[in-house]
Amino acid sequence: MQVNLQYAEEHFAELAKAADNGEVVEISRPDKPVLTLVVSNVPAPQKRTGRRILGAGRGEMIVPTWEEWHAMDKELEREMLDAPLVSSGEI
User: Fold this and answer.
1) What dihedral do alpha carbons 54, 59, 65, 70 form, nearest 10°?
2) Interatomic CA distance for residues 6 and 29, integer angstroms
3) Could you tell me the residue range of the domain that residue 16 belongs to?
4) Is residue 57 a part of any domain in this protein?
5) Is 56 domain-assigned?
6) Cα distance between residue 89 and residue 91, in whole Å
7) For residue 53, what pLDDT is reported?
8) 90 domain-assigned
9) pLDDT tens digits, one per residue of 31-86
10) pLDDT value at position 41?
């Protein structure tokens, strides 16, 4: 289904229901690319209940090595010092 932005604003609940039923909803805008409304296949994270168990989250978070931290610091430093704060077309 393809609708314009104004229709989508006025009938969002209907469009969300159509997406829930498996239909791909395309929202067209005159000056920008089309938006697509689809249902996400990513399951919602489950909230843990009860007592925490030490080590239960092992493998869920990857801590960068010192070399990776250093590389990220260098990249951030380069972005901060080498890139202009405001491009000439935005002022």
Assistant:
1) -100
2) 9
3) 2-37
4) no
5) no
6) 6
7) 80
8) no
9) 777 888 888 777 777 777 788 788 877 777 788 899 999 999 999 888 888 866 66
10) 78
Task: Report pLDDT for 68.
Answer: 93
CA separation, residue 70 to residues 67, 75, 76, 77 (Å): 5, 9, 10, 10
Q: Is the pTM of this model over 0.70?
A: no
Query: Phi, psi at residue 6, to the nearest 5°?
Result: -65, -45
Spell 14-41 as b/e; 16+ CB within 10 A means b. Answer: ebeebbeeeeebebeeeeeeeeebeeee
Cβ–Cβ under 8 Å, residues 19 and 41: no
Contacts of 23 (CB under 8 A, 6+ apart): 1
Domain count of the fold of the chain = 1
Q: Are 15 and 37 in contact (CB under 8 A)?
A: yes
**DSSP annotation of 7:** H
